[in-house]
Amino acid sequence: MSFLGGNYSVRERSPYKESLDTTGVDLSSLTNLAEQWGVMLANAHCRSDNGQYGTPTSFETVARNLFAGQQDAFKTEVADFALRYANQVYTDFSLFRTSLSQNKLCV
User: Fold this and answer.
1) What is the pLDDT of residue 75?
2) What are phi and psi of 7, to 5 degrees?
3) Whether the predicted model's global pTM rises above the 0.85 cut
4) Per its UniProt record, what PANTHER family does this chain match (predicted)?
5) Within 13 Å of residue 93, how many CA atoms lie on the same side as its CB?
C-alpha cells in the first residue's frame, strides 16, 4: 500500500487467534513472558535454515560469547529498541486508522 509517499505492508490478523488477556497481569509476568517468547523466536530463527547458510547451531553459545560481560547493556539496548519500535507501531497504526476513517488510503 502506498500512503503519503511511503510504502507500507498491511496484513490482517488471523481471526483464529485470540487476544492475550492481560487482566491482572503485572509487569514482572509480562517481562517473563516476553523473555520466553524471545527465546522461542531466537531458537526458531536459528534453526530455520538447518545450518544451510552457516547459521550457528547453538544460538545461545554464540550470543553468550558475543555479549560476555555486557549482558546488562545488551538487555537495556534490546528493551530500548523494543519500546521505540512499539511506539512507532502505535503511531503508524493511529495514522492508518485516521487515514482509513477519512478515506485517504491509496490501496
Assistant:
1) 83
2) -105, 135
3) no
4) DUF2252 DOMAIN-CONTAINING PROTEIN
5) 8
Is residue 29 within 8 A of residue 20, CB to CB? The reply is no
CA 41 – CA 55 distance, rounded (Å):
14
Annotated domain spans of the chain: 29-66, 70-107
Q: What contacts 30, CB < 8 A, 6 or more positions away?
A: 22
How many residues are listed for the chain in this entry?
107
Residues sharing a CB contact under 8 Å with residue 36, sequence separation 6 or more, in sequence order: none
Q: What are the 10-residue block averages of pLDDT along the chain, 107 residues in total?
A: 68 67 81 83 66 59 76 85 90 88 77
